């Protein structure tokens, strides 16, 4: 069995436990020894971060080969139009190459705790919310995608990674899940006892 921790990473917090510059880190909200983040979430982004003490599980979640879909709730500047949505769904050309097709749809504003500092309505009088699901994880990809189609990202919350959901976790809250997928077996120590005898001892 493996332990998986689902954390709602707050805004302006690093996805690591230490920092030499005095910025907020995961140690400010979690005191669980031996866990590491499966992937990362930008300092200025919020939402679901997965952590575990099982290196193989972290690899399965974070490695690009496994293509875990990631869903984001994105507050955009302006009112996104159908042409921009179609471009996101089809894939767009960024400086580091074309993106894979994404799932993109307008959504109502999600029920979220206010962000500090909040989006200034005087500077951004018109905004909308987009639900965007991608299956790759380039640096600041969502922000670059929405800017490319003309609608800059103002607030970004990761709502899901594969089957794991942010749910009702408040910023800074976390919960633990137990996964019953077996860990890789360690090589057995050599023994002069027959195999059947060893099996009875460990049964």
TrEMBL record:
This is Pseudouridine synthase. It comes from the Bacteria.
